[in-house]
Write a structure and sequence with these properties.
Elements: H1 2-19, E1 26-36, E2 45-54, E3 57-66, H2 74-77, E4 83-88, E5 92-96, E6 102-107, H3 118-123
Antiparallel strand pairs: 1-2, 1-4, 2-3, 3-6, 4-5, 5-6
């Protein structure tokens, strides 16, 4: 019985490590960002998009935020041309913020939202 619990716990821990993006951190350049905002709405949701160059791989991340959730917009933390540490897998991008927290972005290559970078526009499918 205890062996079964030990095996289940080991499988759960391994799955948890894979689910949290257990990838190496790399430096990426923020090429572009844009947003669909919900202006003048208390409980609305705003969409923020970011495009990164991570060692010649273009990554596009998306974050949905309730208007009242954040004190600062993500753009205040991530400016074009800045170098930021990122980790990524097939589904998410984790960006280390200056305050030490990690911003988790869902990879999304479906919206033609980028205006300032041809490389970001080309990555949209």
């Amino acid at each position: 019985m205890s062996l079964r619990i030990l095996v289940c716990a080991s499988v759960a821990l391994c799955s948890f490590g894979a689910a949290t993006g257990d990838k190496a951190t790399t430096q990426a350049t923020i090429l572009d960002h844009n947003e669909y905002t919900c202006e003048n709405c208390l409980f609305g949701i705003s969409d923020y998009y970011f495009c990164f160059d991570a060692n010649q791989k273009i990554l596009i991340g998306h974050e949905k935020l309730r208007t009242q959730t954040r004190k600062k917009k993500p753009f205040d933390l991530l400016q074009r041309g800045a170098q930021v540490p990122v980790r990524y897998d097939d589904k998410y991008i984790w960006v280390s913020e200056p305050n030490g927290k990690e911003l988790r972005l869902m990879q999304d290559y479906t919206k033609k939202i980028f205006l300032d970078s041809a490389r970001c526009q080309a990555a949209v499918k």
